[in-house]
User: Which sequence fits this backbone?
């Protein structure tokens, strides 16, 4: 059985790590280079680095910052935000990223997923999906959750896999920053329709929530931000807890 992964997420705005609730009310959470270095030392399996305003600001992601992070960590890390072309992705991979994450640009131009997978390999391509529950339907959102679409979460996730995505990073906007637990019902449905790994994001607030996202949500990785940034949970303690509960995890 493949081991489950614990992934701290660094949401970046103006060169700083930030965190909000339901994608709003952002507050400063520290220097991304120092946090990345700390998480690498603490035993995180991977890092995700998201330049959360790059798409809305219509600019490319921060490759210089990626270089600094890559120089200070020894675990895989994924970079997303503002990637709209093969060239954008190549710059980040050359800067030291191990994978790239696309979100809004992929919805607007689904062929981008095919192009990225064909050029770099599916293992380098993560498609991030921000979705919100409206009247019983999970709708995909763009531009850091600012723009709703008519895309259905399950249909879009399946299309992403068919186009060559290597992983899906699903963030429940309803759960983001609430610390009330992950969206395990939808995660389990995603696991039933997809054969590629699923990274769960949105709602982590306790060690039990991580146990539930693996045991009930069938996720392959659990991603969180504020509980790690503000030292509410230590990564090694979390991993020991999960191992004791029978979850396959690397310590």
Assistant:
């Amino acid at each position: 059985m493949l081991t489950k992964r614990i992934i701290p997420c660094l949401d970046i705005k103006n060169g700083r790590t930030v965190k909000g609730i339901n994608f709003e009310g952002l507050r400063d959470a520290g220097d991304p280079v120092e946090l990345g270095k700390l998480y690498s030392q603490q035993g995180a399996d991977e890092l995700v680095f998201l330049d959360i305003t790059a798409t809305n600001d219509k600019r490319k992601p921060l490759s210089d910052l990626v270089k600094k992070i890559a120089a200070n960590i020894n675990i895989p890390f994924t970079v997303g935000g503002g990637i709209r072309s093969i060239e954008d992705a190549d710059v980040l991979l050359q800067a030291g990223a191990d994978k790239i994450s696309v979100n809004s640009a992929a919805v607007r131009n689904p062929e981008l997923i095919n192009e990225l997978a064909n050029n770099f390999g599916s293992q380098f391509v993560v498609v991030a999906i921000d979705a919100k529950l409206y009247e019983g339907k999970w709708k995909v959102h763009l531009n850091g959750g600012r723009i709703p679409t008519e895309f259905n979460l399950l249909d879009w996730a399946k299309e992403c896999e068919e186009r060559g995505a290597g992983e899906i990073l699903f963030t429940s906007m309803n759960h983001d920053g609430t610390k009330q637990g992950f969206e395990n019902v939808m995660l389990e449905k995603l696991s039933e329709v997809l054969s590629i790994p699923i990274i769960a994001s949105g709602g982590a607030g306790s060690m039990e929530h991580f146990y539930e996202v693996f045991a009930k949500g069938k996720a392959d990785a659990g991603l969180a931000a504020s509980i790690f940034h503000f030292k509410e949970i230590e990564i090694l303690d979390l991993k020991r807890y999960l191992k004791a509960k029978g979850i396959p995890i690397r310590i």
